[in-house]
Amino acid sequence: MTAKVLLLNNENEPIRVCSWKKALLLVIKGKAEACKIIDELDYTIKCGEIEIPNIIRLNYEIAVPDLELPFCRENIYVRDDYTCQYCGKHFPASELTLDHVYPKSRLGPDIWENIVACCKSCNQYKADRTPKECGMKLRRRPYRPQKYMDFEFKKYKYESVYWQKFLSA
Ligand SMILES: [Zn+2]
Questions:
Q1: Span from the CA of 73 to the centroid of ligand 1 (angstroms)
Q2: Distance from Cα 105 to the centre of ligand 1, integer Å
Q3: Which of 25, 62, 94, 165 has a CA that sits 20 to 30 A from residue 135's CA?
């Protein structure tokens, strides 16, 4: 089970997205409680016999942390909307790969600004060339996502429509 839970601080500001196991532990330890703000809605996730809320609120004060987004394959796919940044087509993760815009073989760095989601055929065609050298055009200049929570909302947007309520919180 991969269900995710939105964690709020005691002022209802989104802190982070965590696993349901972590959420359950916080509730059991009395550090957090089910968020009752939207209790007219069905906002629980089922885990076998256990039902846990998919929004929980810490019952102590904590500032919204300034978290760095992990630089990893999945997050690059999410940033690029699972879309090949050359041909613009949408693909499942299994049919995507990562492309170094400035080629790795020529010491192109492993950084957000140099890596994009790319379909296998565009990747094969591009090979060890820069986009300019092979006449390919990037759909969007790759960037480092700035706002951790905005990104998490994007990543898990299908997980819970109720989270949207806290987007501008
Ligand atoms: Zn492509």
A1: 17
A2: 20
A3: 94
